[in-house]
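for the record, two folds in this file. i put them one after another cuz i was lazy. first one right below, seq on top, structure tokens after. the second one comes after a little note so u can tell where it starts
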Amino acid sequence: MGEDLLLVWSTFPDVETARRIARQLVTENLAACANIVPAVDSIYRWEGKIESAQEALAFFKTTATSYPAFQDRLKALHPYDVPEMICLRIADGLPEYLRWVSANCTSG
């Protein structure tokens, strides 16, 4: 596997927003796919206060080459001022699946 692959996660205010943005990122070949967890409880500090919210969580699979454009586009589409975007390099996986991810993302 020549290309570094990434798993990126982000939270959204609701499942409809997560689906809309995930579909857009996949349509634009910035992510090969997205998995959406419809309900997570989030507890966080924002502007000096402890907050809590019901959110949707999405996991995206993309490439390191596509990530800069992915990040810019997700930030532009996302309704939060500071959207959560955390990514991890995928160290291993089913080779056929990893090739599929790489083939379904633009290369820059």
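(here's the note) second protein begins now
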Amino acid sequence: MIIFIGIAVVLCSVFGGFVIGGGHLFWLLHLNELLIIGGGGLGALIIMSPRKVLRDMAKGMFLSLKGMPHGREAYEQLLKVLYELFLLGRRNGMIALEEHVLEPANSPILKKYPTFAENRDAVEFLCSSLRPIIDGRIKPDQLRLLLCAEIERKETEHFAPVNVLTKVGDSMPGFGIVAAVLGIVITMASIDGPIENIGKHVAAALVGTFLGILLAYGFVNPLAVNLDFIGSADLDFIRCIAACVTGFADGMAPLTAVELGRRGLSSELRPTAEGLEEMLKPIKLPAQS
């Protein structure tokens, strides 16, 4: 919704100012200019992007329409599920987490927190982080290295579409110039015609420059920045999981490990220390039979 509001503001301000200045919107309707600029930008996007980057870009654009992916409720559920898993591991041993890690879809703990359980990437990262601890194959400091390597890989994948889209946005004014030059070629070919036709051709050429700049700085580059924020929000969610898991693997108490993750959150999403304790206080494991 916010993106649509931003687009509306850009369109109203640009075209509204044009109309107030005495222009007519139909003067800007030149499909040939749009075809040159839009086709050129799309072609450049396809040439410079591997197939996976194109898929990730389409997915990111869809997610950007929904707003930021992780709100305060998502983080509250994350801290709760981590705390409950850590409690279970501390009381019954790490082997007690095996059923929740190997089959997360059937985990009774994860089912309590549907917002987190529906986030497949986060669930997969959590399970892959806990599995080496359960197996006892690595030490806590080694786990930190593994998670850092995975997060670095995710960073590269997150920001590849952003970099490509930014380059496309930077190229749009150039395609606008291409459209303008082609318009001037058409104008020169009609130089011996009626003066009003020459004026129309020159106006069409200038519209090409205008559209290239507008698309670059009014739409494509702002969309790339939005995708950047979406990717950063996803990575922050993953980093919170990594911080809590490594803290627990280092021997921290469940509450302290979750507190470690809380401190890494932004002020907008971070509950207070007292609020975290109140939030986690009702979570208790069933008594052992």
